[in-house]
């Protein structure tokens, strides 16, 4: 359930209210008791991932975890071929 922000146009009181998405917006200010509340448009909260990750730790099979770990390691760059000395004429 989201948290909505409200502001009263009469007294300026601002607050947050935890409501279901199906609930009607509040209309009466809890401070001045007038029908002057407006629901503010919020930017929303960012998505937060907590923990060490999901690539290796979420696999049930240990063989899959080691394969995933091998894929996530950067490959070592291939050596460039050595230049041969030019033939003298």
What is the terminal separation in angstroms?
83 Å
- The rounded Rg comes to 30 Å
Number of strands: 3
**Global structural class:** alpha+beta
Largest beta sheet: strand ordering: 2-1-3
Order of helices and strands: EEEH
| Main β sheet profile | 3 strands, antiparallel
Mean pLDDT: 76
Low-pLDDT residue intervals, each spanning 5 or more residues:
none
Helix % is 10-25%
The percent range for strand residues is 15-25%
Gross geometry = elongated
Quickly count the helices.
1
How would you sum up this structure, described in words?
This protein has one helix at residues 62-72; strands spanning 3-8, 14-18, 37-39. A hairpin with a 5-residue loop joins strand 1 (3-8) and strand 2 (14-18). It is α+β, with helices and mostly antiparallel strands and 89 residues long. Strands 2-1-3 form a three-stranded antiparallel sheet, with no helix packed on it. It contains one helix and three strands. The protein is 12% helix and 16% strand. The mean pLDDT is 76. It has a domain at 3-39.
């Amino acid at each position: 359930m989201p948290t909505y922000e409200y502001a009263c146009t009469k007294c300026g009181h601002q607050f947050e209210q935890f409501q279901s998405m199906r609930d009607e917006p509040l209309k009466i200010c809890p401070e001045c008791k007038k029908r002057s509340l407006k629901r503010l448009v919020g930017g929303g909260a960012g998505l937060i991932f907590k923990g060490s990750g999901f690539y290796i730790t979420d696999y049930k099979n240990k063989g899959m975890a080691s394969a995933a770990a091998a894929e996530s390691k950067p490959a070592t760059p291939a050596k460039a071929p050595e230049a041969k000395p030019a033939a003298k004429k």
